[in-house]
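Memo to structure team: turn this sequence into C-alpha cells by end of day. - J.P.
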Amino acid sequence: MKKSQRSRRVTGAALAVVLGSAGLVAVGTPAAYAATPSDEVVKLPISYFGAMVVDDAHERIYVTDGNKNGSGASAVLVYDFQGKRVGSLATDQPASGMALSADGATLQVSQSNRILSFDTATQTRTGAASTPYDVTCGREMAVAGGKTWFTETPYSGSSYCDRPDNNALLYGVSGTASFNTGWNSEGRLKLESGPGAPDRLVMGQAGANNAANAFVTTFDASGANLVRGPQRRFADAEGKGALDLKDIAQSADGKRIALADAAYGTRLLDASDLSDAPVGYQPLPTGAKATAVAFSGDGKYVARGAVAAGSVSDLLIQPADPADRGTPIEFAFEGELDGSQVVPQGLGWAKDGSRLFAVTSDGGFGHWLHIIKPPAAQYDSRFTGTLGTTPAKPVVGEPLGIRGKLELDGPAPAEPVKVAAVREDADGTQEVAAAKVAADGSFTVLDVPDRLGEATYTLRFLGDVTHRPAEDVKITVDVAKAPTSVELTAPAEATRAGGVEITGKLAGQGRALPSGIALKVTRTDRFGTTGELTSASVAADGTFRIKDLPNKRGKTLYEVSYDGDALHTASSAKATVKITG
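Reply from structure team:
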C-alpha cells in the first residue's frame, strides 16, 4: 500500500448567509471550499435552453426551450417560486428570448416569426408584433427606455446559428411592427437592461471570430432612436485577451456592469465608461469557465455561474460589492440529479434576494431548474488522520475496505452524510459506491478491484445543507493476485501392493478459478529420488484425487502444486506416507 495524500483546493475566509424576511445577511466564518446547495430542483422537460425570466410581482419563473432545429407549437414553461409547474404559455413555434415590461404586467416572448405578448396576471396572449425574418436561431430580448429590443440572427438550424461569420442585427418593436436600428455585428448579439438604469440598453458581441475582438457597448434608449454611449474591446495589441461573452448583468443601482467572460472570468466594469471597476471580483475556482452572472434586486449579492468538472464549484454567491473580500459561498453541481454546469444566462434572483434561480445542464440535453435558498450558515468539513485499507494488501477480485474519518464542524447533519469515491487504474476511472459516515465520523468505502497493479482512490465529501465539502484525499494501493491454497488428505501408512490414495482440494480467493486445471504431482522416496506422476485433474468444486503404486519402502513425500494463473498466485502442499510391504 502506498502513502495517502491530499489534493489541494480553493481555500479562504468564507461568507455565511443568513436568510430573513429582508434577504441575506453576511457574517464571517472559517475557510470555505466548494459546496453542494440546499435547494429545490426541478427536471425541466426541455432539450435546449432559451431564456429564463423572473416575475417577482406574481412569483413566477418563465423558461423557454430555445430549440434551434424544431418547428410547430410549443410553450413557455411557468413555475412558481417553490418549483411547482403552474402553467404554460402557448406559442405557435419554439420560443427563445423573453423580456418583462418594467411594470411586470407584460411578458414578451420571441418565436421564430414574431414577438408575442402575454398578460402576466391572466397568463393570456394579448398581441403580437412582426419580425423581419422567420428563423429558428432565436433572439435576445430586453426592455429599455420603455421599448422592447431584440436581436436577429437571420439563419435557421443549430449548425448555422452559431457560425462566427454570421450577421447579427438589432431591432426594436413599435406596436405590431418591428424596425431596424441599423446596429449590427458579426457572430451573435447579447442584450441586457435593468431597473437601476431603465433607459440603458447594454449590447455585447458573442460567438464571433477572435480576430473580431468582441465588443460591449451601451445605448441611451430614452429617445426615438438609440444613441450609442461608451464601447470597449478587450484584446491587447497582440490580439490576446479578447472577450468570450456568455452573459451580461447590471447592478441594482445601475453603476456597474458585469460580464461572464469564458476566457477571463467575471469582468466588472464601470457603467459610465466601461472601464474596469476599481476593485474586481476574485477569480473563479481553477478549471471553472464563466457562463452566467446576475445581481440580486436588493443590491446586496451577485451570483456567478460556471462550467467546471467534478467537485470544482459551478456557482458562487458573494456580496455585490467586490471590496467585501469574503470568499464566496460555493456550490458544486455534480451528477444526474443536479446537472453539472450552469448554462449561459441561466441565473436570476428574486428581487429581495431570498432565492436564486439557476438553470443547469449535463452538457447535453438534460436541464434542471434549481431554486436555491442559501443555507443559514455553512461550516467546514475535513478528512482527518491517514486512510487505511482492509486487507492491508489488496487482491484482485476480493472486497477492499478503505477506512477513514470525516470531521464536520457545526451542528450534526439531520441525516447521515456520505463519502463518494472514484477508482483510477489502467482501465480508466470508475465510480465506487458511496459510504455512509457514522456518528463518530468513521466510514469505510467498499470496492472490489478487478485488475492487477496500481489503483488510486480519490475520496470526496461534497457537502450537505450546512457543510462545505472537504478537500479530496487520495490513497494509492498495489492490487496483487488473489491467493490460492492446496489441501491434502493422505493416509499415514500404505502398502506397495495396496497403493496410496490421496484426496485434496484447490481453493482460491477473488474471482473463480479457471476450469480444466491440472495439478502437478511429484513423489520423492526415502533415497531422495523424485519423479513426476500423472497430473491431478481438478473438478468444478475444486476437489481432486491422486492414486499411486510406489515401488520403494519407507517414508515417501508427495507434493501437489498449482502454478497459478493471471489473477491467482501459485500454491502447493505436501504429505508424507510410510510405505510398507
